[in-house]
Amino acid sequence: MEALTALVASLLAGFRGLGVPDVCPGDWAWSVTALGVLAGLLPTIGAVVVILLRRSIGSGSSTGYSGAESVLVAGIGVLSAGLLPLAVFVGAGGVFADATAGRTVPGLTAAQSASIRVATCSSVGTQSSYLGRGSVAGIVGGGDVVTSVTAVALLGVVPLLAVLLVAVQARSALRRGPRWPAKFFWLSTFSLILLTAAVPAGTAEHLWVGILAASLAGVLLVALVPLPSRARIERIRASRDAPRAPSGQSGHGAPGYGGPPDHGAVPGAGAVAAAGPSLAERLAGRFSGRAPEAPVELPTRAAPPPSAPPLPPAGPPPTGPAAHPAAGPMRSSGTPAPTRRNTAAAPVPGPPPTVPVRGARFRLLRRLGSGGFGGVWLAHDAKLGRTVAIKSAHAADAETEERIRREAAALGAMRHPCCVQIYDLLPASADPGLAGMEGLVIVMQYIDGVSLGQLVAERGPVDDVSAARIWAGVAGALDTAHRAGVLHRDIKPGNIVVDPQGHPHLIDFGIARKQGDTTLTQTGFVLGTPDYLAPETAAGQPASPASDAWQLAAAVSFALSGHAPRGEAQDAVAGLRAAASGAKLTHLPTRTAHLSLLKQELRTDPAKRPDLRTVESKLDGWLRRHGYRVDGPVTAMFQRP
Q: 277-332+349-625 — its CATH code?
């Protein structure tokens, strides 16, 4: 305490030595105000440090920072806006309390100590009595009316204004990312009002006046410091080894999930900040300009071209997920395969099926699908001795190519029974069997199956058991991918495929798409509308684990009801406007045990959605409590009307 008092006394003496005017109430009083300015700049310095720190850590995920980063940012707020200013208050109070009591003030000479006890103007008496009188707690409401009103203004209104300005600084420093750490700045400043109750009232009044002036200037200073660009934040986020799932948890359970139903507001009722029709129209204009592509249907069992010799025996049938956007029908015991309709209106451009080329690893068999990324082909891989799916992945620049390589490598290293498996990534020019293709090609596992969208369209909505198995399995696959640093970005019923054994698989990861890109052309199950787009993504924010979780819940809601949660939009503009504004979820299933969990996961605020691991755990628990196998097949005969 003595060391702190000596340090603050030295600072006060320094300000006084700079030529602080010796006018009423005195040079020491104005030195305290100058010290308050210094204390008020501490939160500003903390906010600037946070901005500079974000140049290295980005913004974490769209909803939060990692554990160490959270502690660091919060610690900067508490230190700069709370602990250090508190030390200034305590030290200054000690200086003038000692001077008033006639004690030697540490850090000051005898002459300096004596000058504090001099009266500059008769209205306030000596500076020591003016600055060291009473306490904050004792003066508010005590004494005459003028003194009480002055105390309320300087010790109540002025501090609250300073708290407001500190909050503005913190939120300004945290824009383009999660803003929850701002509370550690303004709450710390607010706590000074309570923690400084024992400080002499005169000292506290002058300090708060200085802090308010500095806080006002600090708002302008923080606004002038450039934030890291959105592109840089995205690059940092993409380079993380294991991005976290959103940390916000709902405080409510679901019927049968170990908690009461959620009676809160229906998600989607609020509006997403900074989103509006104009943004939706700009996004829609970007994608609707693409020429629609005819949907490609996969024959049930297409034979190789007549000119092609028989394929060598393939290895054991793949057990991983499908890797193409248009899957074949599911065949299960006792259930006929759904009849496929050939709706292709025009041939799809691209290289024709090839005959074997000497020394070639691949032989293209037929096109499985197409989209903005290029195309997906069924091919025979001589190296692996099996049939695979090959997806073209065009990289417009070196940065995009590096991201494709990184995410493909991460997916190739992970193993999950419901997740697409990546075998290889290579330039098309590296193999003569890929003649006619350009850029990078991703070699993926292939499995014959039928999409969730087609199953529901032909057989009706699924029952609760099937929905729980689909949701839990795909949630586990997504969580595994997120921890490997890969986002899907385009989850919809057309990208969830049920294999012949009745197990769901997540296909078509977005490693060949730009971050934030959304397929609005005629691919998969969604034809030209962003019905499965998370609100924050539609509003222009980057994709995140939370947005993947929203899209998966939307696909499950479709499986249970036959409709997208917001209903089917008429066009891309209407769909994007509804998504970006957090439109009401008017088509949620009503006769399901999963309704409460769906409402929680489809909340507009990403921070309030349960993470995927929590969702998977709740669904697994629900299945076990009702006597069902967690890893059982999706039933072929759907029961829900």
A: 1.10.510.10
